[in-house]
Every structure is written in structure tokens, then in C-alpha cells.
Amino acid sequence: MMDTINNKKTILTILLVVLFTSVPFLNKAYHIDDTMVLHVTKVILEHPLDPFYGEIDWFGYVDSLWEVTTNPPFLSYYLAPFAALSDYSEIVLHAAMIPFLLMLAWSMVWLARRFTRAGDWPLLFVMTSCAVIVSGNVMRDVPAAGLGTAGATLYILGTDRGKRRHLFLGALLAGLAVLTKYSSIIFLPVMLLYPFFQRKYRLMLWVWPIILLFGLWCLHNQMYYGKMHFYYLLFERTEQSGIPKLDRMFGAFTVIGGIIYLAPLLFVHFLRRKLWWIVGLGLCGLLLLRQQYHIDYNGKYQFAAYLLGAAGGAMLTIYLLQGLAYIIDNLGRLILQTAAAVILLLLLWSFFTFYPGPLSFWHYFIGCAGGAAVLLCFAKDGKRAAASLSKSVSQWLPQLVGLSLFLLAVWEMNRFYKGKPSLEFYFWAITGLLVLMFCLYEGLHRGIAYLKTFQPGEEADSLFLFAWLCAPVLFSILFAPFQAVRHLIAALPPLTLLAFRYLDRQPKLSPAALKYGLFFTLAIQTAMAFLIQTADMEYADSYRSFARYAKEKWSSNDYQTWYVGAWGWKFYCDREGFRQVSRYQEFPKEGDILLWPQEILIGYVFFTRKNFPKHLGEPIDKAVYHGLIPIRTMNFGRGAGFYSNVSCFGRIMLPYQLFDTYDPDILKVYRVPAIPPEEEEKGEAPSS
Fold it and tell me: Would you say the C-alpha torsion 598, 59, 186, 470 has a positive or negative sign?
């Protein structure tokens, strides 16, 4: 399963994949947390030993940089010479990020050959994920994933071959990953587990470089700031975010569904096992859960009729699936498989959008037809179903437990969001939940066999990948202040490896069907990733364009030009010499100019002067950035949260919103009028 990857063909494949997914976007404007990384870089160039020196306005008020920033500064140290030599050129700094993509790509090639028989498919699905392509900014997420995954890969290689230099280098890279992004600490237990499962316990000691590097950073914090930065973020700041863990968990489902498109292939592979009773129960459960907030429970006859109708529809779908499976098994043509998938999606769509209105003849008709279908199903298939269930507990209990957890998660989503999620939310959440459950099942079901023998082998590999996948997912749910695509990039390698191990289970799809299915799925995923990245580039470029526009038209020695907001907008406004409006600092005076993009996060800037925006009146100028791609990646009001998947403003967030034709942003320019003295209120700044 392990071939050499030092041949020219493999190296060329890695280079082409990385350059294909990165070079077209090198001139992307600085975006979201890029500004924070570059601010720390600027501090490092002035105070090399004190990376968190000084203050920054990120939430609308000036606060200590040490308290505001959420990760250690290794990436800023790495970027410092590039920034100094290029004057913060977007092309140069984005090109400087390519080595981390190369690390991730190399790791996926090696891991795929170590844990699967899927060739380069895992590499392609990881590197063309929108999580990797869109996150190719100068933020910490891709570098941390690249360093951590490469470190884990070298550690696995060193364990298998007994090479201490690989163990040391792997732990060193993982340690640098921790100094890039705190969540990379999950690689420590992951790397401890692999030699443990291989029964090479002494090699577990070679994680010491991770502990040493992290310990030195904590000692530096204690000396310079009197407290460990990691401790402050984990046990003090996170608890004040107020975001429930359930919101982060359901956000993780939508993120996974939106960043890797393997769910259809995994589901088709599951259907080949012909566990129709699981499918039937699942569809019945989804039907009822979807309607739990739409059915009038006082109309008991209407509800009973709907129950029968739901059961009948589910049974009808089972027979349709049986027919589709027959087509797939016997013909294996791509066009028929595509048609089968379309039919299935249409059926699910009709189930999710239909709910009963006033009691009518059709409800009774559907109920009677459903009841008849249920009776016919049991009359025809009752004996076969009973025989199938009685074969062995080990054959059906895992599927039943998985189904129960799946329906419980959907029910809890309905309860938590009070039935408000849109069809698009359900699509991504259920898709992500299916991918996650198939992969966890693959790892755990095979891994349990390891507990019987405690011997290295396929079972140990499955349990190791299971633990690796759980680590970043659980960390993002339990400890991250909010859910986001970037928080789950580290989960992509084990998730993809487990998915391809699941596809390799018997009964397998025919090689031709699997090849065409993977090619078709990869093409869709790649096209979507490029579209999403292009839309995100447009959004980022809106602030670079607005700053240039304001510099040309609204910059003068006769008045001060101010701005509100952070993210990439802050970087370009600071570069143009504009002044940021901050709480408890000097506010714009009469005659000054205020720049206010409508979709930017302004934080608490007007918290103690809540009437200040009202006194601004009508804008004297307006600039609209017209985007070409109808996708939104970051707009709280529109429900798009690629970089921060937090349900707020009455919207349930998704990683990205499709078919959104609203402009990325609109810049409004105000001439500041005379503000009444009573509006100049004072107060205390909120804690971070």
C-alpha cells in the first residue's frame, strides 16, 4: 500500500495541483483576519521579541493586542521578511504561503498510499476543497493544517520505518503548527496514539519537541505578559462568547457538507448493502422531524393521516431505490446513475417541502394509500425482513445505532432552531452529518476489532484515523469561540481517508462506476470551490477598491477622513492614512468625512454614542461594488458565514449562500455634522 513518492511523476502532480489551486488567486486582497496577522507582523518588525506589543482596535474600541489576538505569532514571524522586502505586496505574501500547501499536498499523497488504495483521489479532494482554496489568504489556518498534517505524516513514517530523524522532524513541524494556531495542539494526542496502536511505545517519547516549543512560548508569555495566552483564551475569553456548543456542532455539520462533496458516493455505496429497512426508517423519521413545527397537533385525524402518508411515501421510495440499485448493478452507466441521483434528490426535496394544510380529501387519500403500502410491504417482505434482522446483532445494531444518532441530531437541530432552518441549511447539515457518520462508522466499526487483539493492522489504522478525525471536530465544538470552515481544515485529511476506506468496503461499486462517480463529483467540487473563491475575492476586493476610491475623492488637508470597521477594510484604510473611529477615543468633528461600508463588522464603536449614526443624516456620496458571482461568503445579515459560522441577526448561518444577487458591499460617505453635547456619553469598555 506504500509506494515511493519521490518519483518525478508524483512530484509533478503535487506541484501542478498546488499551483492550479493557488496561482490564480495570488492578487486577492487582504481579507478578514489577514489584517490581524499583518498587524502582528508589523509589530514584530519593530519589536522582534514582543510580538503582542501595543494595542489595536478590532471590535470598535482600543484594547491590548495580547488580549485581542487569538493565536500565537509564528506565521507573522515567517511573513515578516517577505512583508519588509515587498512592502506588504499581496502577490508576494500569498506566494509565500505556497510552501504550506505543498506540505499538505505531499502529506495527502503519502497518507493516501499508507491508509487507502485510492491513488491520488484523496489528494485531489482535499486540495480542491473550498476550505483549502478559499482559506488561502495570509491567515493561520492553512499553514497550521499544512504544518500539522506534514508533522503527523512524518511521525507515522518514522514509526513505521523506525527512523528517528523523521520522528524528530515530524514533532518539530507539529510544534510549529501549535505556534501557528493553538487548535493544532490536537496533533499531540494524535501523534501519541499512532505508535501506541503499533505497539511501539518508546517512540511515543519523540513528541517532546511539541511540548518543548509550546512550553517555551508559555514561558515567554509569563515573562512578558504575566499570564499564558493559551490559558486566557481557553478558560477566560471563550466562555464569554455566549455561543452555545450546539450551535457550533450544527455549524460543523453544515461546514463538512459544504467543503467535501463525497456524500452522494458514500450514500450510493451504502445502498448497495440493501439495508432498505434502515433507509425506510430514516426517511420516515426525516419526514416527521421536518414537519414537527408545521403540523397542527390539535387535528389528531389530520396528523394520523399524515403519519400514514409519510410511511407510505417512505415505502414507495424504498421500492424506487431498489429499482435504481438494480439499474446501477446491472448497467453501470454514468447517465443512469446521474438520473438515479436526480430522482432521489427530487424525492427528498418533495418530502422536505411538503406539509399538510387544512384537512382535505387528499390527506385521507394519501393516508389510506400509505397504510395500504405499509401492509403490502410487510405482507410481501415481512419474512425476509425478519430473517435479515435475526441473522446477527453485529450486522444490524451498528446501523440502527447510527440511524438513531442521525435522527436524534436532526431532531435536536429542529428543536434548537425552533423549526426555522431553510431547505438549504437542511441540505448542507444532513449532507455533512451523513459524511461524518459514514466516516466515523468506518473508523469505529473496524477499529473495535482492534480491542480484541491489540495487534497492529487494518483495525488499528481505522481506530487511529477515527481518533484523528474526532480530535479537530471535537476541539472546534468544545473549545473554539465559534464554528467556521477554517476550524475544520485539519479534519479534512482523516475525513477523506476514512471516506475512501469506506468506499473500498464490500460490496464495492464497480471500478468504472466508481471512477466516473469520483470524476464527476470532483469536477463539481472543484468548480464550486473556484466560484466560491472568486466570489470571496470580489468581496475582499470591494474594500481595497473602496479605500482607493476614498483616497482619490475624499482625502484632503482641510478635513480628517475617518472610517469604521475592521477586517481587510482596516488594513487598506490604515495604509491610505485614514483614521479609525474608536470608542472612548476622539470622535470625528464637524466637517470631517466618515467612511462606512454597510456590511462590515463595526463592533461596539457606537455603544456609548448610540445616536451618533442618526445625526449623520443622508450620505453625501455612495460607492457600490458590483459582484459577478451570485455567492456570498461573509455576510451576517444574508446568512453567509464562511469565516464565522455564528447564527445571529435572526439568520441561521451557512458556510456560503448560493444564488445571492445582492452586491458584496456598499460604501456610504458622510459629512459629519455638529453633534449635540449630550450625545457625547461616556462609559467603560466591555471585556474582551
Answer: negative
DSSP string, 257-317: HHH---HHHHHHHHHTT--HHHHHHHHHHHHHHHTTTTS-TT-HHHHHHHHHHHHHHHHHH
Residue 142 to residue 124: CA distance in whole angstroms: 16
Residues 43 and 38: their CA atoms lie apart, in Å, by 9
In this prediction, residue 534 has a pLDDT band, given cuts at 50, 70 and 90, of very high
Query: Which has the closest alpha carbon to 663: 512, 500, 483, 535?
Result: 535
Mean pLDDT, rounded, for 385-390: 45
d(CA 593, CA 382): 77
C-alpha to C-alpha distances, 36 to 68, 70, 568, nearest whole angstrom: 9, 9, 9
Supply the pLDDT for residue 601. 85
Distance CA 205, CA 190 (A): 13
Long-range interactions of 85-91: CB distance < 8 A, separation 24+:
88/38, 88/575, 90/26, 90/27, 90/28, 90/29, 90/30, 91/26, 91/27
| Cα–Cα distance, 348 to 681 (Å, whole number) | 55
Instruction: Dump the DSSP string for 580-592.
Output: E--BTSPPPPTT-
Cα angle 555, 556, 560; round to 5: 80
Report d(CA 430, CA 289) in Å as an integer. 13
Helix (H) or strand (E) holding 63: strand 62-64
The identity of residue 351, as a single letter, is F
CA dist 583 to 64, 351, 564, 682, 686, Å? Answer: 14, 51, 11, 9, 10
Q: Shortest CA distance to 370 belongs to which of 312, 441, 447?
A: 312
Paired with 509 in beta bridges are none
Euclidean distance between CA atoms 413 and 247, whole angstroms: 9
Nearest to 125, CA basis, from 461, 430, 521: 521
Helices (H), 116-163: 121-127, 130-133, 141-161
SS3 168: helix
Least Cα distance to 21 among 523, 497, 529 occurs for 529
Q: For the residues 605-625, what does the mean pLDDT come to?
A: 87
d(CA 431, CA 422) in angstroms, rounded, equals 14
pTM: 0.83
Q: Residue 522: what pLDDT?
A: 96
What dihedral do alpha carbons 66, 67, 70, 75 form, nearest 10°?
-10
